[in-house]
Design brief:
395 residues; Aspartate Aminotransferase, domain 1; Aspartate Aminotransferase, domain 2; seven-stranded mixed β-sheet; 39% helix
């Protein structure tokens, strides 16, 4: 800790996923053969029709600053997408385009939270939710779940966690890190609790919407009695393999969108012009255009679950979306492996990096100290070799 720095940044945790990715790169640069299963990044190339749109934007000489909240025609494409895929009606004034869904989430915490406001985080949750809330002065409050409940919270657990200080609930479905998908029925039970507390705003992170193996996706905002207090966060990084293009967006109440526009105007202003033009084309095309990726992820899920079932000590469930498995590895706690004591998920994740040369992420970063996250957004060859190495390192 450096006392010359702000208390804010000194108390902030480093993103566990990005830290593991940096460590992986460092080891690879040293010539060590590391298989990375830590990052949530599709390994597919960007679809050609999206590349063509970006090239056309360059040819058309797009180069200027963009509107803070996004090009008008991109906002119209987002509105069309929300109507087509989610049966949600929005006006342009309810849409804000940002530099990735991560900025969308950061904007929301900054404009909605005051010092001491509580934020409910159904655990496990994405690594940045808690620290984004803390930076904005909020107090994260975990609602635990377990592998036995497919990492989903109950209505009873939600109600028990609510206090007079509760301001937000933030969750993802499909979930990062567990791959869990809340059904319409499950969301309705949660909504029946929330309608009793009209001051609570819902942030629904739906970035993995299309990587869904259940056959249907439902948004909390689709309930008429929740629409005016739910903000939907989405983007193009996962479904379209556009992680580095950094385009995210929200749809939500106009008063919240205006506040995000104001906040963003003082931080980054508008998102990249070429990426915005390409995103118009991405969103104007139906989800069927990227079905080949979803089908491939489904096969990889089957493969990794099968291989994990052959490794003693890994307790898994069947994730319904995204491209992660989140096994419970508490079986190894208290054991000594090759002279190294394993007492936490972080110990276990580090052991796999050092001994199996496989990068994973500790579940502690996601609010679950009994698990680790493995991404199967990797080739089948890499998945097979990673599981072989892990099995060998644990024998």
């Amino acid at each position: 800790m450096d006392n010359r720095l702000s208390k804010r940044v000194n108390e902030m945790a480093t993103s566990a996923t990005l830290a593991m990715a940096a460590k992986t790169r460092e080891l690879k640069e040293q010539g060590i053969d590391i298989i990375g299963l830590s990052l949530g990044e599709p390994d597919f190339p960007i679809p050609e029709f999206i590349k063509d749109a970006a090239i056309q934007a360059i040819q058309d000489n797009y180069h200027s600053y963009t509107p803070v909240d996004g090009y008008g025609d991109l906002k119209n494409a987002i509105i069309t997408k929300f109507k087509r895929d989610n049966n949600l009606e929005y006006k342009p004034s309810q849409i804000v385009v940002s530099t990735g869904a991560k900025q969308s989430l950061a904007n929301l915490t900054m404009v909605l939270l005051n010092e001491g406001d509580e934020v409910l985080l159904p655990a496990p949750y994405w690594v940045s939710y808690a620290d984004q809330c803390k930076v904005a002065g909020g107090i994260p409050k975990e609602i635990p779940s377990s592998i036995e409940t497919d990492f989903k919270i109950t209505a009873e657990a939600l109600e028990a966690a609510i206090t007079p200080k509760t301001k937000l609930i933030i969750y993802s479905s499909p979930c990062n890190p567990s791959g869990s998908v809340y059904s319409k029925k499950e969301l309705r039970k949660l909504a029946d609790v929330l309608v009793k507390y009209p001051e609570i705003i819902v942030i629904s992170d739906e970035i993995y919407e299309h990587i869904n193996f259940t056959g249907s996706h439902f948004s909390m905002a689709e309930f008429e009695d929740m629409y005016d207090r739910t903000v939907v966060v989405n983007g193009v990084s996962k479904a379209f393999s556009m992680t580095g293009w950094r385009i995210g967006y929200i749809g939500g109440p106009e008063w919240i969108a205006k506040a995000c526009n104001k906040m963003q105007g003082q931080v980054t202003s508008g998102a990249n012009c070429i990426a915005q033009r390409a995103t118009i084309t991405a969103l104007e095309n139906p989800p069927s255009k990227i079905k080949f990726m979803v089908d491939a992820f489904k096969e990889r899920r089957k493969l990794i679950l099968s291989l994990l079932s052959e490794i003693e000590g890994f307790k898994t469930n069947k994730p319904e979306g995204a491209f992660y498995v989140f096994p419970d590895i508490s079986y190894f706690f208290g054991k000594t492996l090759r002279g190294k004591n394993i007492n936490t998920a972080s110990d276990f994740s580090l052991y796999l990096l050092e001994e199996a040369k496989v990068a994973t992420v500790t579940g502690e970063a996601f609010g679950d100290p009994n698990c680790i996250r493995l991404s199967y957004a990797a080739s089948e060859t890499e998945i097979k070799e990673a599981m072989r190495r892990i099995k060998e390192a644990l024998n």
